[in-house]
Structure formats: C-alpha cells, structure tokens
Design a protein that fits this description.
Length: about 210
C-alpha cells in the first residue's frame, strides 16, 4: 500500500491534474464498474510510461549504455613514470637485466608477470594505475624459503626462482596444461601439468644450449 501511494503521489506531483484528465473524458453513460476498470487501465499505462521515462533519463544522466556502464579508458603513464616503475620491478625480481634495456618482449613478459602476481588486468603494458601499483609493489613471497628452488604457481600462472638467502630473484609468466585434449604427431594426449615436488637432475647453461643447437 505504501508503494502504491508513493507512485501515485509522484505522478501527481510531476504531472499536475493528469489523473482527472484521463479519468473523466468519454466515461459518461457507462456503469461504475466499467469506469473503474477503464481508469485503472489508463493509470497503469501512465505508471509504466512514467517509469520508462525515468529509467531512460537516469541512463542518460549516468552514461549507461547497452551492455553496462561505459568505462573510461585507462589513463596512460608518462615515460618518466614507466621508467621508474620498471626500475623498481627490476629491483624486486620482475625484470632481468638493465631497466633501460628497451627490449619490448622482455619488458612485456615482466610486466605481465607482475600483473598476474598482483591479480591486475593482464595487458603486458603499464598504464598510470599499473605504474603506481608497480612503484608500491614489494618482492613476491614464495611458498617456501630457506633453500634455493623453483616454484610454479598454477593459480596465478607464474614461476618463481627462489634463492635461499635473497628470496624470489626472478618472476616469469608461464602457461600450464589446460586439461584439454591435444594431438601431436598423430598421438592424442591430455595437457596436464603434474603437481608435486621434483628434483633437478640436469642443468644446461644458455651458452652451451646455443652451441648444441
């Protein structure tokens, strides 16, 4: 009852006299029951029209578009801020090599790893918000400490290289098995990344790998 009174009062305030104008014309000569039904139908139509008008007005006022509210584009970061952010990422283990090395692929993968660890939007680029977050970021915390090892976080899809004294010294983005079937050289298998603890039984340096290749 309270809701109906509120709606009728709002309509009366917004459109003065509208009820009397739609209720009285062309109703003479009809019985009271027919008059009440006709008036109720017209008032219902008016309420629906008013509600649709208010909804459209609110949508335009708040910038609502079809499919949800329009989101402004992320603000770009200045070159100076990006350089400072990348220098800090270098210091906490995300970048490998000098921060002024403008290797696009290396920089993109490092930023992608940072965004995955911090659960940010994964773009591989630093906008203004990402750069500020990078400047305030701390060195990632490994699951285990006290000995040198490699950790793979399957949930965040990153790899940590952990030093027994420093902690995480390198963070890399990874792509683990999706659990789906794939076919390679005529053999169908399921892409699964095993979980558990494993021992490194062979190491190959980058230089030796290049010579062997």
């Amino acid at each position: 009852m309270i809701d109906r009174i509120y709606i009728e009062a709002t309509i009366s305030d917004s459109i003065p006299g509208i009820y009397s104008r739609i209720a009285t014309p062309n109703l003479r000569g009809k019985d009271d029951r027919t008059n009440r039904i006709t008036v109720a139908r017209r008032v219902t139509a008016l309420v629906l029209l008013a509600a649709a008008t208010l909804a459209l007005t609110d949508s335009l006022a708040f910038g609502v578009t079809r499919g949800g509210p329009a989101r402004p584009a992320p603000a770009p970061a200045t070159v100076e801020v990006v350089n400072k952010a990348e220098q800090h990422l270098l210091e906490i283990g995300y970048l490998n090599g000098p921060a002024n090395d403008r290797d696009v692929a290396r920089s993109r993968y490092s930023i992608l790893a940072f965004q995955r660890v911090e659960r940010r939007n994964q773009t591989g680029k630093l906008n203004a918000a990402d750069a500020q977050a990078a400047l305030a970021a701390m060195r990632p915390t490994p699951r285990e400490t006290g000995y040198s090892h490699v950790e793979v976080d399957l949930q965040r899809q990153v790899l940590f290289v952990v030093d027994q004294t420093v902690g995480v010294t390198r963070v890399l983005p990874v792509s683990s098995g999706s659990g789906k079937l794939y076919t390679f050289e005529g053999k169908t298998s399921r892409a699964v990344t095993p979980r558990g603890r494993f021992t490194i039984y062979r190491k190959v340096s980058v230089g030796a790998k290049r010579r062997l290749g």
